[in-house]
Specification:
Shape: globular
Order of helices and strands: EHHHEHEHEHEEEEEEEH
Helix content: 10-25%
Low-confidence stretches: none
Amino acid sequence: MIRITVWNEYVHERTEQKIAEVYPEGIHAAIAEFLGKEEDFEVRTATLDDENCGITKEVLAETDVLIWWGHIAHDRVPDEIAYLVRDAVLEGMGLICLHSAHHSKPFRYLLGTSCNLTWRESDDEEILWVIEPSHPITRGIDRYFKLSHEETYGEPFVIPTPDKLLLIGHYSGGEVFRSGCLYERGNGKIFYLQPGHESYPTFRVPEIQMLIRNAIRYLAPAYRQVTACPHVRKITDNAPYVI
């Protein structure tokens, strides 16, 4: 079983009627619902208002892939929680950051940049083009697919050059954006997926669901261990290697 924790700040859905109509049980519940149909997935959810934001060392130790959605409450996530996530990724846990989670503390702390971008909300259509059709994350997706409405993100996107760029988004307003970015940090992998604005039912789109399912299976750790910094003897010494 792949153990998944879906984290959502869960603010918009409880404070804006328009958003509640799209995701009445919250974005985390909508994602957990389709993931829960997979026989090899074990899914739990956590939100900002849970104790410790629902994130502890114990929770992360029992999480193979963490999915993170945030937007207007990034600053309400304590640094110590973000550092727990960062350290878990460096040890080998997978991390999927969705949409406005580009500005989340875990993502920024792992990438080391501002992760700023240009944006507007104008109901633009988005076409997502697959750059790496043979990659496990994009496998099964056609050359492109369309989202009838999505919040517009545009370059420059202040991120390190991705280890793999899997998707490029093109909007009816003219912008292009690196919409599917893959990174390795320490022993862990990170996938950033741009679509998922709270005003639109993006997480009910079959291609988006497929990308997330594929990413979970790709990011699930085959090796998970703290990479220590031991003081060692020469291997030719007739003595224990670690001092």
